[in-house]
Structure formats: C-alpha cells, structure tokens
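ping. complex inputs:
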Amino acid sequence: MDFTFSEDQLLFQESVRDFLVNEITPDKIRQLWETDSGRSDELWQQLAEMGLTGLTVPEDFGGLGMNELDFVLLAQEAGYVALSEPLVNSVLVATPLLSECGNSAIAEQWLPKIASGEARAVVGLAVNKLVEDAHCADLLLLEKGGAIYAVEAANASLRANESVDPGRKLFAVDFDPAAAVCLAEGGAAQALINKALNRGALGVAAQSLGLAQRMIDLSVRYTSERKQFGVAIGSFQAVKHHMANIAYKLEYAKTPVYRAAYDIANDTPRADLSVSHAKLAACEVADLAAKNSIQVHGAMGYTWEVDLHIFMKRAWALNSSYGTAGFHKNRVAAVLLADNAALGAGATF
Amino acid sequence: MDFTFSEDQLLFQESVRDFLVNEITPDKIRQLWETDSGRSDELWQQLAEMGLTGLTVPEDFGGLGMNELDFVLLAQEAGYVALSEPLVNSVLVATPLLSECGNSAIAEQWLPKIASGEARAVVGLAVNKLVEDAHCADLLLLEKGGAIYAVEAANASLRANESVDPGRKLFAVDFDPAAAVCLAEGGAAQALINKALNRGALGVAAQSLGLAQRMIDLSVRYTSERKQFGVAIGSFQAVKHHMANIAYKLEYAKTPVYRAAYDIANDTPRADLSVSHAKLAACEVADLAAKNSIQVHGAMGYTWEVDLHIFMKRAWALNSSYGTAGFHKNRVAAVLLADNAALGAGATF
Amino acid sequence: MKLEYTAEHQAFREEVRSWLKANVPAEPLKSFDTEEGFQQHREWEAKLYEGRWGMITWPEEMGGRGADLLQWLIFEEEYYAASAPLRVNQNGIFLLGPTLMEYGTEEQKKRFLNGMATGKDIWCQGWSEPNAGSDMAAIRSRADLSEDGSHYIINGQKTWSTRAVWADWCFGMFRTDPESERHRGLTFILVPLDSEGITVRPIPQLDGLPGFAEIFFDNVKVPVDCRLGGEGEGWSVAMATAGFERGLMLRSPARFQETAKRLVELYKANQETADEDPSIREAVLRAYMDAEAYCLTTYQTACRLMQGGKIGAEASTNKIFWSELDQQMHATALKILETRGELLPESPDAGDVGRWLDGWLFAQSGPIYAGTNEIQRNIIAERMLGMPRK
Amino acid sequence: MKLEYTAEHQAFREEVRSWLKANVPAEPLKSFDTEEGFQQHREWEAKLYEGRWGMITWPEEMGGRGADLLQWLIFEEEYYAASAPLRVNQNGIFLLGPTLMEYGTEEQKKRFLNGMATGKDIWCQGWSEPNAGSDMAAIRSRADLSEDGSHYIINGQKTWSTRAVWADWCFGMFRTDPESERHRGLTFILVPLDSEGITVRPIPQLDGLPGFAEIFFDNVKVPVDCRLGGEGEGWSVAMATAGFERGLMLRSPARFQETAKRLVELYKANQETADEDPSIREAVLRAYMDAEAYCLTTYQTACRLMQGGKIGAEASTNKIFWSELDQQMHATALKILETRGELLPESPDAGDVGRWLDGWLFAQSGPIYAGTNEIQRNIIAERMLGMPRK
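pong. complex structure:
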C-alpha cells in the first residue's frame, strides 16, 4: 500500500509545469484565440519533443510506454494553464484506444507518428455528441451505431460549433463508414468505448483540479493586491472563507482522481466507480472555484480583460464532457444500491 | 390587492407577543419539562381568557369567529417562545375540523368548551403517526382507515413516546371505533383530512418563522456580548454572514406563509400548493437558523444550559410534522409538471 | 389582506397585454451591447414612449401614467411574459429620472426628462472608480468650479459604467471639495458624453461584448446648471438613487418568474436525462418556489410602500435573493442542456439551448454589482440585526 | 503508487478481526457520559490492553505493537466495522500519550503511560477557559511555584473538559508567569482530579448527559514532577498535542465510512418514501463519496508521513471536511426517518431509528470543538494560501 507518487513522476510533473507555465501564458492563449485553428503546430512539436505526445505510446512504436497514472499529474498541469492543444485526449483516450483496438495495422501506422508529433488523433464518443479538435486531427476514431471507426481526416466532413470557451473547438463530424476502417463492433466496441469514456473522464477530472488550483492562485494574488476600504480585500474574512472553501474541497477531490488513474492503469474492477467519483468531485470543485473566484474578483472578474475567465470558461465547458454529473451519479448509485454492495470501513481498497 | 395585515391583526399580535414573551420564559419552559404532563392548566386558562383557544370557534359557540389569517401571526409568536401548550393545533386543526365535520351535535357539545378553555381537543392524522398532546386532550379527533372518529379521552389508550424536544409529548393512540363517533368516511373524510393537514402544516410553518427569529435574536445577543481575540465575536464577518443568511431567507419564507394562511382562510384552489411552499420554505429557514446559531454560539450552544437548544430542538422536531419535505415537494412538483400548468409572470395571484 | 386583483387592475393588465401584443417586435432585437442593437433598443424606447408605456410610474405630464406600484408590477409581468426588449435606458428612467424629479430644478426636469423618456438621451452612470468599487465614498475624480462660477472642470476616471459605450449622457459623483474626505464634499453632476476631453474606453465583458466602459475626464467643462442638488450634497442625492437602484424597479419578480417558467419547461422537455441527477429536480422545484417568494415579498413591499411605509433592509435582502436565484436557475438549465450547454446559440448543433448561456454569463454579475453580496450581508447584519461593526 | 494491501496487512486485518469478534461485547455498552457506562468503557479499555490492542501504535514495551499508520488505519477499519465501543480514554492514549513519549521524563513515562494504557487512569483535558475557547492563548488560570520549588499552586477555571466528570486526571496549560501574555509564560501540568481544592461541575450537553464539565481550581497543590516539559514551555508542548488531536487518529475514516454505509442501508430500506425528496438521494450519494474521499486522503497522508513527510494544513482541511460530512449524513438519515426521526430510540414506536438522533446531536459539536470551522478556514486561507492577515 503506497498512495504517493514516485520521485520520477513528481519530477516529470515539475518539468512539464515549468514548461507549460512559461509557454502557455494568458497572453499566448489570447493570441491563439485569434488564429483560425486556435492550435499551434510549434507548440505541438515542443510537446512531442518532451515525449508527451507519445507518453502512452508503447516503446516499440517510439513512445515512452507509460500509463494513465504517469500522466495524471501532467493532465492536472495542462488544466492549470488551460492548455487547448489536444494533448490530454490524445494521450489518455486516442492512443490507448489505438493500442487496444486489436487492429495492429492501424496501430502500427499511426502510433509512431503520434509519438513523434507528426500526426494527431482524436476520439469522438457518442456521449460527447461533438468531437473536440477534429479540425487538427489526421486520424479520427469515431463511435457510430455502437461500432468504432478509424477515419482519415480527408474522409471526414466537419461542421464547426462555437463554445463559450474560445479555446475549445468542437465539431459535428460526418463520415461514410464505407470509406473508413471499422475497428470494433458489438461487445468489443462497447468495452473500448467504456474505457475511452473512463479515460476521457479522468482527463477532465485531472484538468479540473488544475483549473481549480489556478483560479485559487489568481484570486489569492488579486485579493492580496486589490484594496477597498483601505485594506487588501483578501484580509476580509468572507473573502478568505470563499477561498478556503475551494482549497479544502480540492484536497478531497485530488485523491479520488489519483485513485481513478491508478485503477484505470491497473484495470481494477472498481475503475468505473472510481472514475465517476473522481469526475464528480473534481468538476464540482472547479465549479465552486469559478463561482467563488469571480465573486472575490468583483467586477474585474466579469471582464474579458482579466485572465480569470479563461479558466472559468474551461471549467464550465468541461463539466459535461465525458459524461454529465447525472451519468456519473447513476454509475455510483448502481454500485451503492446493488445487493451485497461492498461498502463501509475496509472496503475501499 | 393588499398584501398587508390589518391594524387589528398587528395589534393582536403585539399583545399576544407581550404576553407570551413574559409568561413563557426559558425558565418557565424548563420548569414545565420537569412536570409529568409538561402542560399548565393555568396557562391554558390564561390563553382562553385572551380569546385564543376560541379564536376560530364560531361566535355562536362563544368564540371569536376568526380565521387562519387572523391566527397566523399569533402562531408565529407561539413559535417564538416555543410554546408547548396545544394552542396552534387546537385553533388551526381541531377547531376547524370540528366545525366542518358535519356532525353538529359533536360541534355543539365541544366547541363552547374549547372556546372557554374548559376542554382541549387534539387531532391525530395518519401522516403524523403519533398524536401530539393526546395526554391532555378531552377529545381526540383521529384518522383511522380513511375515516375520522371523535374519541373521548376515556376511550383512548395512549402509549407515550419521547421526543428529542422535551416540550413535545407524543403518543401512539389506540381506540375502539365502536366506542367512538365516526365523523366522516370516504371522500368527505379525505377532504377533511387534507384540510387538516394543510392547516397543521401552516401551523408548523408559522411556528418555524418564529423559531428562526428567536434563534437569530438569541445569537445576535450572544455574539454581541461574547468576546474572543479581544473583540465581540459578532464583529467577525463570518459570524455576521451566518446571521445574515438566516435573516434574508426568513424574509422570503414569511410571505409564502402569509399567502398560505390567506389561501386556507379563503379556500382558494391554490391552497395545497401555497401550503407546501410555505412549509418547505419556513422549515428550511428554521433548520438553517439552528445550524448557524449553534455554530456562532460555539461550545455554549452545545449545552443544555444555554437556551438555544429549546428552540433548535423544536425546529428539528417540527420539520417532518404534517408532511415531510418529500411529501410537500411532491405536491409542488405535481402542480409544476402538470400539462398546462399556469406558471410565470402574472400567474401568482 | 386581499390577494386578488381588482377589476381595474385586470382591465389595466388587458390593456398592457394587447398593446404589447401589437407592438413587441416579432424578431428579438440584437443585444444592446452591440451598436446595432443599441440603436434598435433606442427605437423601442421611443415606441414605448409613444404608447405612454415608457415609464408608467411617471406623472402624466411627463409622459407617464401616474401608475402606482401595483400597476407597475402588473405592467412588468405582462412585459416579461411578452418577451419585450430589455430597457436600454434603465439607468435614466429608473434611477436618474426619479432622482431628478426629487432634486432637480424645474428647468432641469424640463430639459432632461423628456429626452430621457423618448429615448433621445440614453444615460449611463458614473459611480465606481478604479479604487472605489464597493467603497463609493473613496471617489477621487474632481470637479473644480471655474473662477467665474459658470462651469465645473472635471478630471478623473469612472469605471464599470454600464452601456456607456453608446450612451449620450453620464450622471455621477465628483469631488468638488479637494480637501474633503469620504462622503463629504461630493457633488452630483450630469455630463454630456460628447464633451471635449472625454474618452470612453469600452470594457469587454464575459461574452466579449463591450457592456460597460471606463470614462476618462481630461479637463472636461460642464456648465454649472448640470449640477443636481447643491454643491457638496452629492452623497445624499446619490443615496436616493442607490435606494431606487436596489429597490424593486430594476429587478422585477416577473423577470425571474419567466426564467423559472422556462426552466420548468426545459426540465419537462428533458426529464428523462435530467432525472439521472437528482439535484436537478430539486433545483427546479426550488427555482419555482423562490421566484414565487420573490414575487410575494415584492408585492408585500409594494403594498407597504403604497400605505406610506419606507424601504428598509429589503434593498439588501432582495439583492442577495434574486442574484443567487438567477445564478442558480441558469446553472440548472445548463446542467439540463448537458454537453450542448457550452455552445453559443448560433452554433449549428446547439439545438434547444435558447439564451441560457448568455443568461448564465449575465447572471455572474448579479452577486457582484451594485454592492457585492458580501457588502449586502454586512449591511443586513449591522443595520437590520444590529450586530457590532467592529 | 500501489493501492493494495500486502499479505502482511491482510494477515494483520484477520488477526484484529478475529480478536474483536471474540471480544466485542454483544450488548452495546451504555453511553460513557453516564456513570455506569463510564465504568463499562473503562473495563473495555482494560480488555483491549490485555489483548495488546489498546494503543497499537505505541512501542511494544509500553503495551503497544509498534504499529505503523497503515496498520493503525486497518485496525480502525476493523474496529468500527465490528461496532466496538468508543474509547473513553481517547484524550489520554491519543493526545497525551504521544506527547508524554516526546516530552516526558523517563520517570513520567513509567508513572503515567501504564495507568493510561490499562484504563486505570482516565484522562481529560484542560484547555479551554471561559474566555479562552478558540483563543487558547488567552488562558488565565495560574500555577504559582511554591517557594521551596516543590509544587505548583493552581487557581482558576477550565471548561469544556470532555468526560471530566468521572475522569481521574486532567492535563492542561496554566500561566506560571503572571506577567506574561498570550502564548508565553504557559506551562503544561498534569493534575490528579482528586486533589484537594478541585471542584468538577458537570455541564449537560444537548442530550442532557454530562458529557463535559467545568473544573475549578482553588489553591490546588500539584507536585512539580507533574509538569510536562519545562516551565513556560507549555505552548510548544500543547501544540504537539493539538497537532495530534487535529490529525487523523481521532477521526478515523472508518467511523465515517461505517456511518455512510448505514446511511445507504437506511436509504435502501426506505427508498420509496425517501425518493419523494430528491435531495435525499443526492445526499446519500455524496455521503458515500465524501466518506471514501476522506479515507483516500487519510491513506495518502499516512503514506506521506510514513515516508518522512510532515502534517501541514491537513489538520484544518480534515477538520472541516469530516465535521461537515458527519452533520450532513446524520441530517439525511433523520430526513429518511421522517416523523420517527425525532424520537428517542427507547421510545416504543421508534422502530428502526437506531442511534441516528444521538449521532445527530453529537455531530453538532464537530464544527465547533477543537477550533471552530471558522478558525480552520482562517488558518487555511492564511497559512495554506498565504492570504493577508489584516
């Protein structure tokens, strides 16, 4: 029993954090908002060079052969900077799906390119309705009628939708199954889809932790500097308690997320439950962070000019991604209310 | 359209408040806790002399012939002092039930005695399972198998239960229908039972308003006097906001209660909805008042010695009386979700 | 107590309803945070004025109907039920208008009220300053009387001025006594926004539109007859305005009741998925009841005021209640909308999202503006409950 | 990260489980807030000691098992799952015990630890004073060293001393330097409660039982060898104790997980009526997840501490989290119980109410004692987030 991360994992987190915080500044984000694609090939190449795009690609295909647990802290950091490049979904959802889909030709064709940063793959699950970042994908892995297809970009037609978060790019995607490769159908597809959903939800949860932390940091700095009635507003107890309420809840959202990463990486039977718990807790704390942060920012928080909204909007937008709160509550309820459910002290691990 | 109380109603409230606050002091309450019955004949006689026991008794039978709207502010004051005498249920539930039950012999027999304070009547509805104050009743009006019976005290057998609130006396009551008078059956009984439930719920709601106000008053006084870190703890923003949260919600619980009283008194078609809204809002604010008041009282609030618990326990105990929150939410939902529900601006009155 | 409308009230309601039915534009106007939408709304104000529906509580001689508060509430109910356009000149007609009637000279009333009523002059307010948000007494912008006493010379900066970008006039407080502190030495002045020396810098809000602005004053000359009330008496004039602002006029129960109605409808249309999350049904029931309660309490206050009562702590209790209700309702709607909740309504796959996202963004401002809800809680604790200030 | 128990852990769990199965009294003990129950619990402590289960984290030579934190957590899981009695001597074994091991002289350890372990000496704490509740540095009770240096003479008053009514010893802080202020000049002293000059006045708690007491000291003589740590060093000794108190030992995740389990069972047994109120299902799901989260975070902290980490702000975040969770779970249970929720469990018609009402009353103390949750929030904001103090 060891519920801590390894030195290596923590060091990797630190170096990724340093890189992201320096590169993905709010100014940079605003610049990217102004571009057509909203994405940066240069940035993607840098992420690839750090090994991130290939993190879960098997070593045989030029990746690092790491797993979801190795990545969860990095996904948290991606949330901290509101990274818009499709890294989290690529590492957590697309790559494992390609590796596990059972079609080795497709895997051999694409995984090396994903690792090297040459190609991007995205996944479109029915639960999400729209596909994130379809416009910059070379390969789309799409759920349709209970089956999963691999669709090359040229064979997919996209219809763009706009999100409240200018950093998110969402597309309705149409394709002709005849011009696509069917990777799985029936029960096999269902199993892959459920895993993809769990991994996507884990990614959302981890990013939500980072987003909450970022909003705390922005708010603490703002309220320590901003004065009203002759003192820093951060010295008012009401402002402190708004922040403390995020902070203490965040501590109890982190461990469920880490457990979920462990459970997915180790394919434990409790993974569905862990993931649903993780996503509910993390999205809720990110929501609270948004609510309390805008409040302590006052009117400044209501503007486009202050950076807070970048992170608030991402938190709001991610909330229903990879399963709504209702979906995940239902999964938890199904376990709790089952006959002979293993609950109570000693039943956690 | 006039959503205010009359001068007379306000003056009556004032005189009843003065009487109750002087007579039903916390010391007096603690004394009554130590007695077997927990009730005071002397006090009941005083209430009768003020016209209160006969408030809803028709003038022909020696009462004041007033209605639920005339009484709602007085029920609020009864809550303010955590009155344990069965006044609210007598005026709001038992008396109207006797008046409306269609059995004039029973009405003629009992209503004058109720008005004069000579006799006490209580009502036992199935929704409450136990009967409040059955031990001091001369007449019990009891729901059984969908019918309503009038049972004289001698024909009822009581089994005492203990409430968390030492001021509440609750009894399982058994009786032989053969030795009782059946007042109504079938649809007529259902209609009477529903009215009794609404009136009882109104009584609970009105008392809850008073309880919330009392807890605010106790807490404001305590926190204005109690010092920590060199200042009155009431000057801390967190303490202020705990109190403000009760106070502002109380303002929005009062008007639903007053509307419910009006709707019952005027037998409007929206009475079920009004009552359910009123009870939900008022019980919720009393609950919040208890929660926040004990918190600002600190350890003192956790003792038997400080008066706060008298009012907290009453608030907790009343919460499920005359229909749980679930029951009342369901009644609201039934209206809201009905086809062609009249909702929105202009639909209130 | 009598909770029924009179026949007169009913007739009035019918009159409002039929006028609105005939006149409310079939196509919703564009947002008044856009230039085109602003112009559309200005025209709508003129149309309201033509029908004498622009400010029914104003006296008849000023284009109103001398309506009482109950009529006002009925009007608002019909107005929101008809989805009539938002009021682009609300700062003028609801805040400054009544203040002008109380503090303005006869000449000022003549000069300003008609332009306000017809939509010719759209007003914005100049209350906040960069370091005087919730703390209005910290105002530093100066208005110095010219030597000949004919005009003020204004220097400084205002901010958070809603709809200032395309507005015509600004009203606000300025420090006329440079030695003064806090709420002494302030004067209430009306400033034409086309004056020389004024720069208006739009501030984009959460949705990216310039819903408010900063106003910079660089030696702006304003004739002394643009002063409202006496010199140095700005605080008491402004407090009257703030009283109205926080009062019921701007936050009609009707608005929230219509939102609650739409929320119930949205829930009914999506009940199967929504019920997966029990907090949604709970929130929908609560939204309906809270909107009702807000209506009930407003009617009670209106009746009390009509019988000679005064506005007390209602200003603060209302503010918290409606702003939290509004946030809650929109949050619930977005939950019901699931993944399409994040989509802008023009998006091709947005489906039935309606204006919930816009409303959600706007609802974020509720707990903040016109005195944050923390300030309101302080006021309730100190003034209503008498808790110790320090 | 490895979230599985070792074979050794599993074996340990089995050992605990079988001992408890054989030894936990079939009939629940009476409340230790009654004299009879106190005695029963004292005997249970002795039985635990016999089995070497009294304080498994203590070293073997003191009757413990030198267990690490993970074993401790496993022990607690089995302990709560077996519904074993509450620990009447928790202030002794969990708070004072570790402090004694760190600050006590060899003689003090020998003298006090065994009596504590066997249940012979039940300890209570003397922290709070009438005007020093959350503000411990405001302590005024005095301990004056006798002229010959052989003993202290204690005068003053302590309050909120849990289980002091039938306890044998009290530990607490007293002001030995009368000139000193705040947290200087305080000394940590152990006081036998049968000393002359001591009056213990029971304070009845919400359920009417004397769960705590005031202790009055009137020229109480205490030998100088009852001082723990140096004179004037009481604050740092006490802070070590407070650290333990607020740490994980007293608030086992197991306790809350078992409550959550019972809540789920109660909900399942009453689902039809409970589902009339959607907030109940929501609260049940949340209770389960929060209890899980509390367990997860505690395991994480335990692992971190075992690897040499230090307790940080967890003390405050934990305190808020478990106390609000506990309140929430009991509130939900009472809702599910409907009208029978208010009944004392002995009532003839109480049915399946179990101990929920008692638990609810007890849960009221959670957000208050050991530093109110408001104080904890201040600490989180100031120490964990670095927000400005004033």
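Chain D touches chain A through 64 residues (CB under 8 Å).
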